[in-house]
Structures are given as C-alpha cells and as structure tokens.
C-alpha cells in the first residue's frame, strides 16, 4: 500500500514539533516496509549537521540547600544573560533552556567552542564583582553530527546525547569537553585538546578536553563592556 506523508501547512510549521508528531503518528500506523517516504520527510524537515553546545550550571544541590531555589533561579537567569550573547555572537542559535541547562546549535564545532570560551570569559568577569555565594560556573559539552533539530524546542541524536553526558555528567566546573567527532572537525593548528576516556551509562565515551588556544583570542564585547579584562582563556 502506498502512503502519502502528512505535509506541513506552511514554511513556519515545517520544522515544529506538531508536524513531527503528525509524521511519527503516521509512521506508527504504517507497515515497517512502507515507512521510507515518512522517514525521508522527517530527515528533510528536521535533520541538520550541526555542532551542539550544552552548558550546565554547577553546584545546584549545594547552592539550593544553602540559599534556596529562588537564589539559584536568579543565578540561572544571570548565566543566560552571559551565554546567549556569546552564543549568538558566534553564529549560534539557542534551541532550549531546561532548568540549569542551555542547549544551542552552530554550523561548526569551532563556533561552539568559541561560544563556550566567550561564556566562560563573561562569567569570569561577572564573578569579580559578585559575592562568593553567587559565583557563576558552568561546564560544557560539545558534539557534532547529523541531529534532529526542532526549531526552538528540542534536539535528538547520538551527538546530542554525548554532548549532554559530557557537559552535564562528566565535565568539571569551567571545563569544556568535546566528542571525538567535534574535536576532529576543529581547524588544525588553532586549539590544543587532550584525549580523555570515560565510561558512563554502560558505554565507552571518548572525549577531548579543551586545553588552550594557539592564538591570541580577541576580547569579547561582553567582557569589554564590563570594564574588566580577565586572563585570556
């Protein structure tokens, strides 16, 4: 039997979750041998080769236990104020924010890495004028590869999963970890990354820890506007 995939009503809905749900619902009612057209429609509408940046605020349990959830929510808001301009200034797009995590996509891993570095630099500048109980620290994971991107809503794919594990579960405060695919796609001769191997959720995960740049990074406007020049990251 021939099946015609559900079509989006306009260009705006072509990448939204409602359209994806309609396609998935249709797929679940279609014999496995006839799902090719539906899968092709999903890939055409949603799959993009992107670099994924996952930022995770550090110290949730400790800070909320000591100062309360509202205090931590205010810190999350402050982190977002630093991260969004850094992401957008490096050509990225914030897809979603969940609790103390921020998820963004970029065309290249270099853009994602530069956004992470600019975020750390901006937070470092903020921390020079904040009391210790409000110090802002994040960990970062970066992946790169074909990913299902639902505009301003969600991300799905193996590199997304790995970036989450690196940023949320493995990376320490102010540490940036890249997947093998992301690290391999960085331009040669610009960054130094050290390989690290991890086991998490029953899987072996090879990662690369950002160590340093092999060039002088320009001062990001976020830092310059605050009148403070921390040590270059």
TrEMBL record:
Show the InterPro entries listed in the entry.
Answer: A/G_cyclase, Adenylyl/Guanylyl_Cyclase_3/4, Nucleotide_cyclase
Q: Which Pfam families match?
A: Guanylate_cyc
Stretches assigned to the Guanylate cyclase domain: 51-167
Instruction: Return the protein name.
Output: Adenylate/guanylate cyclase domain-containing protein
Species the sequence originates in:
Acidovorax benzenivorans
What phylogenetic lineage does the species belong to?
Bacteria, Pseudomonadati, Pseudomonadota, Betaproteobacteria, Burkholderiales
